[in-house]
Amino acid sequence: MAFGEEAAAALNCMRMEKMAYRDYLPPEAVTAGSRLVSVSKGLWEDVRHTVVGLAKEEIPLESPYATVWWYSVLLAMEKDPGIFLELINYIRGHEAAFSANTLYFLFYQLKSKCFLDPGLGADADIKKSLHLYFKETVERFADEAETPLEWIPEEEREEGYVVVLTEQLLSVQHAPTKIALDRCKILMESMGKRVLLINTAEVLTKVGNIPFMEAKEGNYAAKMGQTQVWKGTEIPYFQCSGHMPNIREADHVLAAIRKAPPEYAVTIGGSSMVGNLLSRMLPVLAVGLGPSGLEYTMAQYQTLSRKVGREDLERLALLGYDESHVIESVFTSSLAPQTEKVTRDELGIPEGRFLIVVVGYRLDEEVTDEFLSMLEGAVRDDVHIGFIGPFRRYGEFAARHPGLEGHMSALGSCDDILARYEVCDLYVNPIRSGGGTSGVGALFMGVPVVTVAYGDVAVNAGEDFCVKDYQEMQGKILEYHEDKAYYGAMSEKAKKRAEALLDSETEFQRIVGEFCDRKRKSGKP
């Protein structure tokens, strides 16, 4: 069918829903929405914008499930902050129509969209509204919990025992997994704590899912054992089922912790529902997974790897917090040790090339035509670009950028990223929120980073490695390529920067000390 016919079919579905349905989304509506998104790709922007505007007027607002679906369809066609904010506020205004699990499912889908799209993720109104939405969802779960959530007095908690919660534990190539294991090791080996690591398995849950266009799903490693070994340290470990945040299983975890309460808890990231409910029982420190922004959390304290700004304070005030809620810190990483040697020949890269790498787990979303057009302008005869990570759309992008033919290749995923950095010259970062740890690995190997001053890579790398936009990025790439003395000086700066970013032991102990001081001085739960 042509685009006009698909648009008409979708509009007719919405009009029918207004007349015939309440709290029901017919299968034909899911089909019509999916087809509309598919045929809209590649259309002129103004045509797509017009159709989105027409469709928005026809959304059946009386039917919450259908409304969420059609808003998600429009967002897949056009990443409009206004439409995104409307969706958040619609769900908040109709939260009684959804189960607590569905509210959490939708929260994570919205949070994921903010993470993947800087235009949404940087919007102050969106961040405020989404944090209020998260607060209200925590309250819904608290109302449904059977475990008493009253505060446990300090004298009833076991001094020297700490529970660490992470929402996902995968392989050591997964940055949040390394962060969780590393913090456990520091607590155990350097601070003398008894630790239990709990994987609550809540990232991008499918529990409570309803139709949502381009919904993301978190990974889950089913067989992980009762201990995790990290750099010689055996860490006691418990893993929830992959069907969280089921309130009954959450109750089981909370009841077990209440029966043998720790001195305090640490959450890796801030959005674990178990961790947020736990913060009603005892002190919780949320270790931010993104150095550039506040976590969505109701824990009493969280880390932030930059100065607290006016926008942060406004957001915190909405939640009943002030600046004392935030512990400013250096976002330190832990790198899996290099175990391989890789040659350019093995990677299919001709010798003598200036090798640029673009690294990520989400290259399909984070690489854009604008980014590749910038790289086209930076290509010289001896320049090659390698993409490291899953990149299903590589062929599609390559076809649209013939200027990069013969100058780029998809290198796939790997277990040893440091071995790849050893044979490359420059790490170039597309505009995105994440990727902070991959940038640290490049710096550690003396590979300079080039990034726009936005997101986690920029915060970690520091202003010496930041540019203001893609135009300046293109010039900076050429400067690294042509000026050997400049390249050498920046390579040394990269190594020095990495030293501070890898000193997790010193920094995490300082953070925990600050956390303990603040909770003691506050004199309140």
Report on the architecture of this protein.
The protein folds into three domains: 3-144; 158-334 and 504-522, Rossmann fold; 344-501, 3-Layer(aba) Sandwich (Rossmann fold), CATH 3.40.50. The model has no long low-confidence stretch (mean pLDDT 91). The termini are far apart. The protein contains 22 helices and 14 strands. It has 525 residues and is α/β, with parallel strands linked by helices. Strand 7, helix 12 (310-318) and strand 8 form a beta-alpha-beta unit. The protein has helices at 3-20, 27-40, 45-58, 64-77, 81-93, 100-116, 118-121, 124-144, 175-190, 247-259, 273-278, 310-318, 344-347, 363-366, 369-378, 394-400, 417-421, 436-444, 456-461, 470-482, 484-501, 504-522; strands at residues 158-166, 194-199, 227-230, 233-239, 262-268, 284-287, 301-304, 326-328, 354-359, 383-388, 408-412, 426-429, 449-452, 466-467. 48% of the residues lie in helices and 14% in strands. Helix 1 packs parallel to helix 3 and helix 4 (64-77) runs antiparallel to helix 5 (81-93). An eight-stranded mixed sheet has the order 3-4-2-1-5-6-7-8.
Distance between the termini: 60 Å
Helical residue percent band: 40-55%
Strand order of the largest sheet: 3-4-2-1-5-6-7-8
Structural class: alpha/beta
Question: What oligomerization state is this entry in?
Answer: single chain
Shape category: globular
